[in-house]
Amino acid sequence: MSAFPAPPLVDIRDLSVSFPQHDGVVQAVRGVTLHVDTGESIGIVGESGSGKSVSCMAVLRLLRSPPARIEATALSLGGVDMISADNRQIADTRGRVAAMIFQDPMTAFDPVFTIGQQIVETIRVHRAVSKAEARSEAQTLLTRVEIRNPASILDSFPHQLSGGMLQRAMIAMALSCRPQILFADEPTTALDVTVQAQILQLIKQLQAEFGMGLIMVTHDLGVVAETVDRVVVMYGGKVMEQAPVQDIFDSPAHPYTRALLASMPGQGGGRQRLIEIPGASPNPANPPTGCPFHPRCTLADAQCAAAMPAMSQTGPSRQAACWKLA
Amino acid sequence: MIPFILRRLFSVSVTFVIVSILIFTMMHSIPGGPFDAGDMPLPPEVRARLNERYGLDQSLVTQYINYMGGVLRFDFGIPFQSPGETVLELLGRAWVPSLVLGGLGVLIGTPLGILLGIAAALRRNTWIDYLASAVATLGLTIPVFVTSMIMILVFAVWLNWVPASGWGAPDKWILPIAAYATIPMATYARYTRSAMLDTLNKPFVTVLRAKGLSETRIIYQHVLRNSAIPMVTVFLPMFIGTATGSIFVEAIFRVPGLGAYFVSSIRTRDYPLEMALMLMLTVMFCLAYLISDILYAWLNPRIRAGGRKG
Fold it and tell me: Whole domain around residue A61: which residue ranges?
């Protein structure tokens, strides 16, 4: 009998999230399995409605439940079982073990408190330090996220700062309790294009410095190419493929991943028509039978419509769920 | 903040002058006068002397200038209804019951309403929420004179716990104050609930949860403070209430407050008292707006910081 290997930092097994509505059930996530190891960075890629954000919110228990129904055979963060945990354990885990940064920094801060007050508050919820110590730590953190005048930013209210500045402050706030894993939910979508690259660079750099795990949720393959080690492609509430980032770009196994790559702008350079994936993403209240991608897939046949294929190994460290794997 | 208040005080005095002109004109445009034959059978020469004594024979402009000159010296004249005292003495006497009634009503009703609203918002779609909403809706839709009569019927007539009307001893205060308190209670219950729910749905609340704050702390530290911003606007009518009491509540419970004089001074053409009451209301309104604005700025950094954003 050998000792059990250390549990992964993030351990999600067979996660389902549904929202009962008056006229049916919206199945946002349908059996997602996902692991993140210490210091590893992964990207969850998918279109809106693929269940990528909901999965992250579910792990942190940020979905109001009810109405949300969360089921999983495992759902743990840094060894804390987030399903059986009580409210105090959940609150203690959030921010300390796992922190999250959100899409729109302009609405992410409480408008009536200064940035400094909100970072200090976060530090002091998790650690017994004085206000003065927490403030000086907050100032150091703002320097770490490359804010040049940290003292004056600490005393600013959210409405006085730009989106890029606020996103930096939010990253500083998320890092203030040295989390082991950082969830970044489309952290650059609401920002100016010029700022996006800087923020991604910053996240990547801090992830390495702090030795944290990272889950980058995005609809943009370009974002994951620059920031993560491994990519998880989601569609219709299910994982379609996961592979090291280089493999995703070099040899995508799943037809959906290939379609996503083909629809990325600027592949060939010069003026060319953008390629789109025909059809619309599945309705989560009434998902297609079998593989959720089959109605839009050029390779689909009767088998695809009948049953969802299991995840199969397509390489040493990659899997895909498709009947048509070469 | 100080220049802001000074600016506002200046605009209050401009408003004061404009309102005084409007009211003075409207008041005198009502047909008849205080010493008309219909009300007081006086010989014509006596009536002429009375009109002369009170300056009513002069032109409206002269009367207005004389009156406002008096106001500047805090001389509001003699009420025709009660010539034995000055207008100020009458106000000082009659305002006390109104202030007690309105003030205690607001002081009791407001926290009750806020608590009810918080409970309703936090326990949405439970019996607490339904109860709070029922109380708020009934309180806002049933006129206060109906509430008052129901309360008299139940607590004074059937249960015989408290006197039905009057003022004087504090046990007589209970019913009118309770009746009056239903207004701020219902108003605040409704506003607090909707302001809380509005704030709870803001994205920053999710961020606060993701930071690891406890739900209690999120509510009391963040949600309440944000919800208080829209609630400040409700403060205005409540403030006026403390100034005037409620005309209806005072009439039903026979409270010797200011309420009755609002009606009687118009009916009897009691120009000095009517002017004084209206000017008092004007000042109360302006003060209420001023205090609302100060509170609003104090609670809301987006207003407070003004043009500081670059």
Answer: 10-235
Domain containing B105 — which CATH number?
1.10.3720.10
**Contact between residue A98 and residue A126 where contact means Cβ atoms under 8 Å apart:** no
Chain B residues bordering chain A (beta-carbon distance below 8 Å): 202-204, 206-215, 217, 221-222, 225-226, 229, 299-302, 305, 308-309
- From first to last of the 310 residues of chain B, give the pLDDT tens digit: 778 788 888 888 898 899 999 999 988 888 877 777 666 677 888 888 888 888 888 888 988 998 889 888 888 888 888 888 888 888 888 888 888 888 888 889 989 999 999 999 988 888 889 988 898 888 888 888 888 888 888 888 888 888 877 787 787 788 888 888 888 899 889 889 999 999 999 999 999 999 999 988 999 889 988 998 888 777 776 767 666 657 788 888 888 888 888 888 888 888 889 899 888 888 888 888 888 888 888 888 877 654 443 3
B174 in any annotated domain = yes
Check residue A94 and report its DSSP letter: B
Q: How far is CA A158 from the centre of its chain?
A: 24
Q: Residue B209: which of A62, A159, A173 has the nearest Cβ? A: A62
**A282 lies in some domain:** no
Parallel, antiparallel or unpaired: strands A69-71 and A312-315: unpaired
> Of A93, A107, A110, which has the smallest distance from its Cβ to B208's Cβ?
A110
Q: In this structure, is residue B46 part of a structural domain?
A: no
A41, part of any domain: yes
Query: Is position A99 within any domain?
Result: yes
Q: What contacts 24+ positions apart, CB below 8 Å, involve B21-25?
A: B21/B64, B23/B274, B23/B275, B23/B278, B23/B279, B24/B60, B24/B63, B24/B64, B24/B67, B24/B275, B25/B60
> Does a structural domain hold residue A151?
yes
- For residue B202, list chain A residues with Cβ-Cβ distance below 8 A: 107
B19: in domain: no
Query: What is the count of residue pairs from A and B with beta carbons less than 8 Å apart?
Result: 81
Number of domains in chain B: 1
ipTM: 0.88
Considering only CB atoms, which chain A residues are within 8 Å of B299? 112
B1 in a domain, yes or no?
Answer: no
Rg (CA), chain B: 24
Which of B209, B214, B301 lies at the smallest CB-CB distance from A111? B301
Number of domains in chain A: 1
Q: B294 is in which domain, residue-wise?
A: 99-303
With CA atoms as reference, the chain B residue closest to A173 would be B211
| CATH number of the domain residue A168 falls in | 3.40.50.300
